[in-house]
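re the bet — no i am not wrong, look at it urself. input seq straight from the record:
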Amino acid sequence: MNLVVVESPAKAKTINKYLGSNFKVLASFGHVRDLPSKDGSVRPAEDFAMSWEVDSDSKKRMKDISDAAKGADILYLATDPDREGEAISWHVMEILKNTKGLADMKVKRVVFNEITKSAVLDAIANPRDVDQELVDAYLARRALDYLVGFTLSPVLWRKLPGARSAGRVQSVALRLICQRELEIESFKPREYWTIDVAMKTPSGDPFMASLTELNGQKLDKFDLSTEAAAKEAVAAIQARGFSVSTIESKPAKRNPAAPFTTSTLQQEAARKLGFSASRTMRIAQKLYEGMDIGGETVGLITYMRTDGVQLAGEAISGARSLIAKDYGDRYVPPQPRIYKAKAKNAQEAHEAIRPTDLHRRPAEVSRALTEEQLKLYELIWKRTVASQMESAQFERTVADIAAEDGKVMLRARGSVLTFPGFLALYQEGLDDTDESDDDRRLPALAAGDAVSREKIIPEQHFTEPPPRYTEASLVRKMEELGIGRPSTYASILDVLRDRSYVRMDRNRFVPEDKGRLVTAFLESFFSRYVEYDFTAQMEEQLDEISAGKIDWKTVLREFWAHFSNAIEGTADLRVAQVLDALNDLLGPHIFPLVEEGKDPRACPSCADGRLSLKLGKFGAFIGCSNYPECKFTRQLGTSGDGASEGLNGTKVLGEDNGDEISLRGGRFGQYLQRGEAKEGVKPPRVSIPKDIPLESIDLEKAVALLSLPREVGIHPETGKAIAAGIGRYGPYINHDGKYANLPSSDEVFTIGINRAVSVLAESRPGRQASASVLKELGEHPADGKPVNVMKGRFGPYVTHNKVNATLPRGSEPETFTLEEALPLLEAKAGQPKKGKAKAAAPKKAAAKTAKKAPAKKAAAKSSTAKKAAPKKAPKTAAGAE
């Protein structure tokens, strides 16, 4: 018998079918061990020795693997074909070595880029050893990320209250977002005008031309910068007649884009489907691991973590034959298209992401896929096929239209698609910075033709700031700079959101003040480590490790020598120095100029106070230099203009029943207040819920918020009132001391009695609401009772006969199967229930034992205390990147 270890249970089931009864396939469920989240897991003083920890779930899985390995002839490590997969195989091998689970058994590494029978059998027939150079690159990356996170993050916690963490690549990505926001804030629009002219040919065919030369001089973009200049240009055109001076037509081609890499797939899925990077990778993982097609689990796409753009020979042949069949021979180029990766290093440059079988068209697999899976599969299928199609062909025409005296020149452009080529199937999406093809066809023109002027259209324009980054454009920028690696982009962006360093506004990244403070702090005191070039150079060194060109510990030693000195240099850094640096760097943001000639840092509450950044227990805020005499404060990111906000950072919204309703900024955020304090009695106040946009707060909504809780109605069964309000844990309804959560704050104002009764009924203890059943998986084979996927407070879980098991991370409830659920439930059922001790001895015997051995009892208490101590370990610092 041979043992095969893969990463996921879904993959294990499929591969077991391919290999037959002589093989046993077990899943590691991803990484089996990691560095503990505590100081000392990587020790530079011991030549970067690393301590690894196996969590409780992985211990059970490794025991199963170890037990199975005892009777196996060969152990095949078949984890994913990338650096992380190589690391998982190495970890499994090391754990088995340490537990003497390998003995004299042969260990082989196998990789396959797609989960198909032929690919799996070919991999088993051609094994290799674990690639130690790839493992070394993983170890170096993991050590670097740990050292930065657990060394730099504590500095942030001490010097910048409210900061969460810093990461080697995460911080650089955050800097990109913050710098773009600074560009937007400092941008000053510039006026310019364009002149378009509607014209007709001698035969009456209309076309458009644009002014390009005036008074014999070629116009630049800002030469017509005022309305007066535009009017002079219009008058010059009106005073002249025009004819075609020259006309030139040239053929042009547009080639198809290369097949998808991880990065380009994430970008295109964001542009065309609106998917986040992490969502794209979750869906792609499912398509890679396989779907049930005709009663057989089939992997639909090749491995989705790659920076390679090349296709296998059989894939190219399949694409060319399919194109000829569906579109005709003209759409097949004479020679296959060969693409080369732009990335400097190809350590993960396997095949591009493509369908495992191009003849498996999207329509043919649609019944087996969810809507989002089908969308992504269709995108990959079209991109792959289009990459091997003939180029699109155009005829581009430029006609110069000259005035009789030659002092005014107009230009008309046109483009005609003469052969669609790959555009018949697929066209790449565009970013904000890309120029779209606004092509229009020109009528028949000939040099010397007199053309008539129909209408002159002057148009005012203003330059616009660069757009905020979307996921697609940020991933594209990071790839251009060589920051991070495509397989890490999704997790990097998730960390920034999870840390509340950024928020999403219409699918664009907006830095929060917390994120801007962290970036400014790092730029001021650790500038080297947030430089784009430095981060890119580190990535190149990691790639050189994987290529065997440099020793991984040499890279760590060089990095640590400089980084540890930088950390030591901040030991004596005073908070006042931090504040001075942040005040200077963030001045345009935290002290915006709202009125010419007025000092933006002048305190609006006292005569001679100066505003500056302050650090409190809960983060940063703006305060007056005359504190405590002047107690003016306001939140970061709000205007300090006294005219618009009033004193103490307030903005008056209006009056209600004689009370002034105001919006105020405090240390803990924005809040609403009714009236002013009287004789030591605090006025009614309410915080603004996070899901209500600040800009939407008007007098009506403010009064409604201050009036909460509101009575919804009387419960028909009890005769007692139901109230709706917003509390510490969000929006809720309350009836007779029982609470139920509401999905949004807006529903607090709109919920009716019927809906309220229904919500309360669904939230009763011991009663499971039907709406929380995400998917019915079928009957359990042991007892015939239902197995369902449920929506839980802490995420989806599978349940059967009062046994609940959390779904593995990354699992999609909609595609989870009964076969995947059964081992989870079996494992959960075998675990002892929390809080229940072993059967106690009879009371008399227990008492007798207690009297005889008080020392042992005390020792037990001490031992228990020691075991509990690790629970107080320091906070986890940065994420993987």
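see?? The chain has a mean pLDDT of 83. told u. also Residues 710-762 form one domain. so pay up
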